[in-house]
């Protein structure tokens, strides 16, 4: 018998984005389980079918309609030139979900200082399409070859320059390379197939999923502060809260006291709590937040 349950086919990125993507789904409320022996992760939603795929290939499969939606980097969307709908930037303060820089670099002692100096030269990179596009933008003709790895060791013998990922610059410095240009700053993106978005059921499913994922990211750097405050100290206490914070105030059994709760940036808490206590707040509680839905 044919299973009548409609399904959304979702691409989960394999490799550097994999663990953080799993963490993101867990915070969004999904039990996503990735086995080392299977390319079909389990998820506790019968309407979602997950497939584990390298980010480099993801956009192409979404464009072709093999996948309805997926998470991959902006770099690989541009590299493949895939025609997909970019629905959200999923930048988050977690490993591999921040900004990734693709840089053009050459040896520190080389005569190459700008992209114009590479006219007629050879560049090694994993991102051939992106590099050719960058060269075209600057009107430079150079030979671009695909690099299978260890790209940073190729100058000056195997290539005149490279275009490679650099997060801290440590690998470039270790190989005596200098940055000539930042070619692209990339972050994880949630993408979808155009035809899938025209399907009423799939679009609604994607929008609900994305709402929860974005809610989990929005909560990543926030905590909930709850406290009791004397009513006559309420103005002084709320004045200490960060400007965007809008506290909820509730009356307690004792009419001289109120309960106050608000969402604040986690980094501000260690300075904020002592000041709140000095202003009269008591029973201060800090609680983690899984999701914030605007």
Report on the architecture of this protein.
The structure is a single chain. The protein is of the alpha/beta class and 294 residues long. The chain folds into three domains: 8-97 and 188-218, 3-Layer(aba) Sandwich (D-Maltodextrin-Binding Protein, domain 2); 100-186, Periplasmic binding protein-like II (D-Maltodextrin-Binding Protein, domain 2), CATH 3.40.190; 222-288, Alpha-Beta Plaits (2-Layer Sandwich), CATH 3.30.70.120. It has nine helices and 16 strands. The strands form four sheets. It has a five-stranded mixed sheet with strand order 4-1-5-12-6, sandwiched between helices. Strands 9-8-10-7-11 form a five-stranded mixed sheet. A four-stranded antiparallel sheet has the order 14-15-13-16, covered by helices on one side. Helix 2 (55-63) crosses helix 3. The longest helix has 19 residues, at 200-218. The radius of gyration is 25 Å and the shape is globular.
Question: What is the fold's blueprint, element by element?
Answer:
Elements: E1 8-13, H1 18-27, E2 32-33, E3 42-43, E4 48-53, H2 55-63, E5 69-73, H3 74-80, E6 85-89, E7 100-107, E8 122-125, H4 128-137, E9 143-146, E10 161-166, H5 170-174, E11 177-186, E12 188-192, H6 194-198, H7 200-218, E13 222-230, H8 234-240, E14 248-251, E15 257-265, H9 269-278, E16 282-288
Parallel strand pairs: 1-4, 1-5, 8-9, 8-10
Antiparallel strand pairs: 2-3, 5-12, 6-12, 7-10, 7-11, 13-15, 13-16, 14-15
Helix pairs in contact: 2-3
């Amino acid at each position: 018998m044919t299973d009548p349950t409609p399904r959304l086919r979702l691409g989960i990125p394999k490799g550097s984005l994999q663990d953080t993507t799993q963490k993101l789904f867990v915070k969004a409320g999904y039990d996503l389980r990735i086995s080392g022996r299977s390319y079909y992760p389990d998820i506790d939603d019968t309407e979602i079918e997950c497939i584990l795929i390298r980010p480099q290939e993801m956009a192409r499969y979404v464009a072709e309609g093999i996948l309805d939606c997926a998470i991959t980097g902006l770099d690989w969307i541009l590299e493949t030139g895939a025609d997909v709908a970019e629905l959200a930037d999923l930048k988050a303060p977690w490993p591999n979900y921040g900004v990734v820089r693709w840089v053009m670099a050459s040896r520190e002692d080389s005569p190459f200082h700008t992209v114009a100096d590479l006219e007629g030269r050879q560049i090694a990179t994993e991102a051939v399409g992106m590099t050719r596009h960058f060269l075209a933008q600057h009107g430079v003709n150079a030979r671009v070859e695909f690099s299978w790895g260890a790209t940073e060791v190729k100058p000056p013998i195997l290539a005149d320059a490279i275009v490679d990922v650099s997060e801290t610059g440590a690998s470039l410095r270790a190989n005596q390379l200098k940055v000539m240009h930042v070619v692209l700053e990339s972050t994880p993106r949630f993408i979808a197939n155009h035809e899938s978005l025209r399907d009423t059921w799939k679009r609604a499913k994607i929008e609900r999923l994305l709402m929860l994922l974005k809610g989990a990211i929005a909560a990543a750097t926030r905590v909930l502060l709850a406290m009791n405050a004397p009513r006559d100290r309420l103005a002084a206490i709320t004045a200490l809260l960060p400007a965007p914070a809008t506290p909820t105030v509730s009356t307690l059994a004792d009419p001289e006291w109120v309960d106050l709760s608000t969402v604040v940036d986690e980094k501000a808490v260690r300075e904020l709590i002592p000041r709140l206590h000095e202003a009269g707040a008591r029973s201060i509680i800090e609680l983690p937040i899984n999701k914030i839905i605007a």
